[in-house]
Amino acid sequence: MAKTTPGEFFRQVRSEASKIYWPSRQETVTTAIFVGLMTLLLAVFFLGIDALFGWIVSSLLSLIG
């Protein structure tokens, strides 16, 4: 594998960096809101599942003891 000179390396980095797509402010805000809502929805869902399983386990334990 041929070694790359520092100058060539920086040219390649600049070329690759120019291909990066940066989202607009609106896209970033929209995505952040969506992520926040989905996180809240999943938190409520898992809270419900945890409460349900907790109730099932406590019911089963009350039958035993």
Task: Please write the string of helix (H) and strand (E) elements.
Answer: HH
Mean pLDDT: 94
Please give the alpha-carbon distance between the first and last residues: 72 Å
Number of helices: 2
Largest sheet: none
Residue ranges: pLDDT <50 for 5 or more in a row? none
The percent range for helix content is over 70%
Rg over alpha carbons: 26 Å
Structural class: mainly alpha
The tally of beta strands, per DSSP, is: 0
User: Strand percentage, roughly?
Assistant: under 5%
Overall 3D form:
elongated
InterPro entries: SecE_bac, SecE_sf, Translocase_SecE/Sec61-g
Organism: Novosphingobium clariflavum
Function: Essential subunit of the Sec protein translocation channel SecYEG. Clamps together the 2 halves of SecY. May contact the channel plug during translocation.
Transmembrane segments: 32-57
